[in-house]
Design goal:
By secondary structure, this protein is an alpha/beta fold. It has one domain: 3-Layer(aba) Sandwich (Rossmann fold), CATH 3.40.50. Helix content is 44%, strand content 14%. The protein is built from 7 helices and 7 strands; from the N terminus they run E-H-E-H-E-H-E-H-E-H-E-H-H-E. Helix 4 runs parallel beside helix 5. It is globular, with a radius of gyration of 17 Å. It comes from Nitrosopumilus ureiphilus.
Length: 247
């Protein structure tokens, strides 16, 4: 029970990596608040995760973000851990084909949304010497041939550097800020790219270890950063990607 007594907030926690993180936190003793835009999906997820509650929120709406934090404090009195996991993936297209509204939406959800939640939670993390874990991507570490998702890559790369900025800014408050960069993980977000056996084989082969990842494997790395096992670690960027980013 590595998170016994802790209160954790996981954005985008109703499915995929976020759900796996929330479930692992719960299994390790934490009370978990999960957010998502879809009420039905949120209700289903929270019913499957002990000691969790779901609060509907659009990460693009600062009032929604504030409401999540206010309700968490009202009910539990503190926040120990924030996992900035929520994100969207755009349609694959080259830069000159991207509509400006598409570009802005991806940056707003995948970057500014993380700013909104972090900004709201910082005053409470100061009181608990808390921990922030940002979920970036190995696409935030390097460019990939044929991976034409520029707004996504830009947002994820920015989150990597912001992790280091926030780690330095709030080290004096004993707030630790670390970052996980997953490779391709078997989630709803990646299913459109894994429709055929040929697609799956190609993607498996892109990862030197020979396969794509599972949400639970990312969740274990997040648990490490959130726990006291990582009490002397801040500003760290950890690739959890089967070796994809080191090719």
């Amino acid at each position: 029970m590595r998170l016994s007594g802790k209160v954790a907030l996981v954005t985008g926690g109703s499915r995929g990596i976020g759900f796996a993180i929330a479930k692992n936190f719960s299994e390790n003793g934490a009370t978990v608040i999960i957010t998502a835009k879809n009420q039905e999906r949120l209700d289903k997820a929270s019913s499957e995760i002990p000691n969790s509650i779901g609060i509907v929120a659009n990460i693009r709406n600062k009032d929604d973000v504030k409401n999540v934090v206010d309700k968490t404090i009202e009910k539990f009195g503190k926040i120990d851990i924030l996992v900035n996991n929520a994100g969207i993936f755009p349609k694959i297209k080259e830069l000159h084909e991207i509509d400006e509204d598409e570009w802005n939406e991806v940056l707003d959800v995948n970057l500014t949304g993380q700013f909104r939640f972090t900004k709201e939670v910082i005053p409470y993390l100061k009181k608990t010497s808390g921990s922030i874990i940002n979920i970036s991507s190995d696409a935030g570490l390097k460019a990939y041939q044929g991976f034409n998702a520029d707004a996504y890559s830009a947002a994820k790369a920015a989150l990597v550097l912001l992790t280091k900025c926030w780690a330095l800014e709030y080290a004096k408050d004993k707030i630790r800020v670390n970052c996980i960069c997953p490779g391709v993980v078997d989630t709803d977000m990646t299913k459109p790219f894994l429709k055929t056996q040929k697609d799956k084989e190609f993607m498996d082969n892109e990862h030197p270890i020979g396969r794509i990842g599972q949400p639970e494997e990312v969740a274990k790395a997040v648990l490490y950063f959130a726990s006291d096992d990582a009490s002397w670690i801040t500003g760290a960027i950890l690739a959890v990607d089967g070796g994809e980013s080191i090719k």
